[in-house]
Design goal:
Elements (H helix, E strand, L loop, with lengths): L30 E5 L3 H12 L3 E5 L5 H8 L4 E3 L13 E4 L4 H14 L2 E4 L12 E5 L2 E5 L5 H17 L11 E6 L10 H8 L3 E4 L6 H4 L6 E4 L10 H14 L3 E6 L9 H10 L4 E4 L4 H8 L13 E5 L13 H6 L3 E5 L5 H10 L7 E6 L7 E6 H10 L6 E5 L20 H9 L1
Parallel strand pairs: 1-2, 1-4, 2-3, 4-5, 8-11, 8-12, 9-10, 9-11, 13-14
Antiparallel strand pairs: 6-7, 14-17, 15-16, 15-17
Helix pairs in contact: 7-8, 11-12
The structure holds S-adenosylmethionine (SAM).
Length: 436
């Protein structure tokens, strides 16, 4: 099948005095007829389908992606040539074949029926043009540039970048409430776009010791920053005091960002804070972050999984020693795993963790690494076999925060050819399988 224009859905029309009227169509439940099923159509279909339109595609051949959408029941596909009368019942039409005469006939039929029609090979000869558009945070932005498609696409991209970076503020000022934001492991660039945006809208920021401090430097002076570790209560009361602080400020009508290191829900007590706020009737937004358990090893060159090497990884808290009556960790079971073990909060008791793993079957020579201050300028990476890692870390003066990685992934050599087993599925195989 010939596709008129692979990269630009509508050829730039010469600048003219035609000024299309930008409008939002409510296509929910309404018939849209698309003639053609090449790559232009493939790119248009997701938004049409997302709008709720009942999309009928007619073309003698279709790309595999268009066919897949039909198989999934998201569109109707008729594999045949266009015939006069095909626009029957349509509210909107797209003429996207590689044959100018067919596209012209589709536009003519649309004209006769009084429905708007986009013409892909010659925008100015259609009665509608598709704006370069983007959905962001509940907004839909559309750009038309007198048929200059590259220009509208470029402006659309600039708007998106500006929205993402906060240069254009898209958000309604958030109402009172709390956002639990994961700040990532330390490098301020590793917070999510949403996290950074909400931080920029905060009235109050309650910050943990391990949250990236550099993010606070960007805050305007009006923002009250509260260091959670300095909230004046006894040690045992600390979490309750933090919860009370969040609730109290939100009740005073403020938007509070609770900025945490890594991900709030990975050994971050995020859910305790969420429950406390929910019990007090305070709305809570959760913004996940890059957890140090995965991000720190990755940046140090250690993947927690690798095809053909490990099919599992487990993240374990070391805040209690093995055998402690309150410990919920099944150390013998973890020792029996063949995959990667990531230990957090484990610097102090690293010797005890290595011993319990070895005593329960993990090989004493298993590669291990400890990474201190990961993703920051002060990052230190130390590798040693499991049997020696505790002594070596002590010798080197390793101190928290640090993550420990145990398993074959530690010794992967990025310069060596991958040791993949051919029989293992790649992600797309798995996706295809689960789609079947
Ligand atoms: C209370 S837990 C919080 C984990 C956090 N919620 C996360 O998802 O990364 C603190 C532990 O995270 C790990 N950690 C946090 N930041 C780190 C960093 N930059 N480098 C190495 N380990 C880090 C250390 O194991 C530290 O003891």
């Amino acid at each position: 099948m010939t596709d008129p224009i692979a990269s630009d859905p509508e050829t730039p029309a010469p600048a003219s005095d035609r000024r299309p009227y930008l409008v939002g169509l409510d296509l929910d439940g309404r018939r849209v007829v698309v003639i053609g099923a090449g790559t232009v159509v493939q790119r248009r279909l997701p938004l049409l389908v997302a709008s709720g339109a009942r999309v009928r595609v007619i073309a003698p051949e279709a790309t595999p992606a268009v066919e897949a959408m039909a198989t999934e029941g998201r569109i109707e596909l008729e594999l045949r040539e266009y015939r006069g009368g095909d626009l029957e019942g349509g509210w909107y039409a797209l003429a996207c074949t590689g044959e100018p005469e067919i596209n012209a006939a589709v536009v003519a039929e649309a004209e006769e029926r009084g429905i708007f029609c986009v013409r892909a090979d010659s925008a100015r000869e259609g009665s509608a043009v598709t704006p370069a558009s983007v959905d962001y945070d509940g907004l839909t932005v559309g750009v038309l540039a007198s048929g200059e498609h590259r220009r509208s696409a470029a402006v659309r991209s600039s708007i998106l970048t500006a929205l993402r970076s906060g240069v254009i503020d898209s958000a309604e000022p958030p109402g009172p409430g709390v956002a639990l934001v994961g700040g990532g492991p330390g490098d301020p660039d590793l917070i999510t776009v949403r996290g950074r945006r909400l931080l920029g809208l905060a009235d109050v920021v309650v910050v943990d010791r391990l949250a990236p401090g550099a993010l606070l430097e960007e805050l305007p002076n009006r923002v009250e920053v509260i260091d959670a570790s300095k909230i004046p209560y006894g040690r045992a009361m600390a979490q309750e005091a933090i919860n009370d602080t969040l609730i109290e400020h939100a009740r005073r009508g403020r938007f509070v960002v609770r900025l945490k290191g890594g991900d709030p829900m990975v050994f971050g007590r995020g859910y305790e804070e969420l429950l406390a706020c929910a019990a007090a009737g305070i709305p809570v937004t959760v913004v996940p972050g890059i957890t140090s358990s995965i991000g720190v090893p990755a940046i140090a060159g250690i993947p927690v999984t690798h095809r053909g090497v490990t099919h599992e990884f487990v993240v374990v808290s070391g805040h209690l020693p093995p055998g402690h009556p309150e410990s919920l960790v099944n150390w013998p079971a973890i020792a029996q795993l063949s995959g990667t073990i990531v230990l957090m909060m484990a610097v102090e008791r690293l010797g005890a963790f290595a011993d319990v793993l070895i005593a329960n079957g993990r090989d004493v020579g298993t590669p291990a690494a400890i990474i201190q201050d990961g993703t920051t300028d002060g990052q230190i990476v130390l590798r040693a076999p499991l049997g020696d890692i505790a002594a070596r870390a002590k010798e080197a003066g390793i101190r928290p925060p640090a993550v420990v990685v145990i398993g074959a992934v530690v010794d992967l050599d990025p310069t060596a050819a991958s040791g993949r087993a051919e029989s293992e599925p790649v992600e797309s195989d798995v996706a295809a399988e689960s789609a079947n």
